[in-house]
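Inputs:
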Amino acid sequence: MSPIFLFLTFVALLSALGVVFAKNPVHSVLFLILTFFSLSGHYLLLNAQFLAAVNIIVYAGAIMVLFLFVIMFLNLNVDTEPHKPALAKIAAAVAGGSLLLILVAALKDVTPTGVPAGTVFNSQIGMVDQLGMKLYTDYLLPFELASVLFLVAMVGAVMLGKREVGERNF
Amino acid sequence: MIELPALGWQSIVIFVVFALSLLIATYCTYAERVIAAFLQDRVGPDRAGPYGLAQPLADAVKMFTKEEFFPGGANKALFVFGPCLAMITALMSSAVIPFGNIMNFGNNLFFLQGIEVNIGMLWVFGVVSLGVYGVMIGGWASNNKFSLLGAIRAASQNISYELAMGMALIAVLMISGTLSLREITLQQSAPGEWYMWNIVKQPLGFLIFLVCAFAETNRTPFDLPECETELVGGYHTEYSSMKLGLYLFSEYVNIFVVSAVMSVLYFGGFNFPFQYELRDWFVSSQGWELASAQNLITLLGTVGLFLKIFAFIFFFMWIRWTLPRFRYDQLMRLGWTILIPLAVFNIVLTGGLILAGVI
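Outputs:
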């Protein structure tokens, strides 16, 4: 394992823990952005440049900006944080614990077999042109279905954001 | 051992690009005032040094020696982190811009470019989309309503105009078929067709990109995040000393970078008219070697690129001192209901023209 890999993994885990443990929601968001950056670093190590760049643009550049936007409006801080009842805490612990149990149970019998012999690994598969070729030939249907999903989401957003008759915002 | 670019000769290029970005941004502050004075028929800064050329230096001394002020209830760490982030993201994007072609010394090839990656355009776009964090974090950490409003404005403005900008870029990428800025530049240099820059093929796309560039760099007429008539100083209301300096400075670095990107994408980058004829003239009439003639053309091309960049920077300042500010709802309406449909139309148009074999 290269030192860069270890460093990125360290940063990713540490910042992921920071997301959960930070008291301030804005700090949580910033830790999450750092996590995305280290994941992009991992993509770069795997020679998936396109994925790395798109991960930054979409997640760090767009989605997290919106997250931060909303959290800034909410103005959450220690004074306004609602007190959580003990029942909710117990329920959360039980739910999280059972998820952990299932994950461990599912993964404990897995034996890594590696790549089947005779497979030629294409180191250029993460490049834009190769990825585009793959998406538009072998995976055309899932790709088009995903675009239909996006279209539906867009129409929904326009419907929700549409001004009602007689409504004035300013 | 992984070969880092900083270990090779390329590090000199990276350092020069870094230093030039800062130098140009420094003198942009001076140029802004001189151009403002010219447009308003005033004298402008002329006290510090000959023609006031030492004015940026005087400003720097002033910025560094001012009191460092932390507003009450501010989040100190993020308050400091905000301007740093703004500066870092502004400086990062110039790494992939090709400032010149190849220099050839014997058998050593120099790329006049920080790093050549095949996702260059995505890199620039990604870094530009991160630029808003500096403003947002700084505005929020100030614990001031005006700052917060400025930060919120910056965020929604950047997200809105990024969409149109990205779609204007898609049309360019459809023509070029590559994301590498160097490849895009080289494609605009077909011998005998010096006039076929991308601006000829993408006039509408360029217009959309230009408007979005103004919005992304928070320049007038889109400088709503720091609109002093409504928000005192916007996101940097509470900032003083060099932290304020970094915010103001990062704006000029952003202008420089976005001018460079526009020159590369639409105005042929380091290509200039009749470059091949000039090279051949040096070889045939002056008896130069091909390599040294090529090196001269490369250097002239770099000068040409910087002239294009300076022209764009002048254009940015010209607009600033000519047009008044938009109202916020006008800004949003322009972004969502005019620029984005136009950009989609541009993509369809480009696709049609490519199918018809016109471009």
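Remarks. The interface with chain A takes residues 2, 75, 78, 117-119, 122-123, 125-126, 129-130, 132-133, 136-137, 140, 148, 151-152, 155-156, 158-159, 162, 177-179, 329 of chain B (CB under 8 Å). DSSP finds 14 helices and two strands in chain B.
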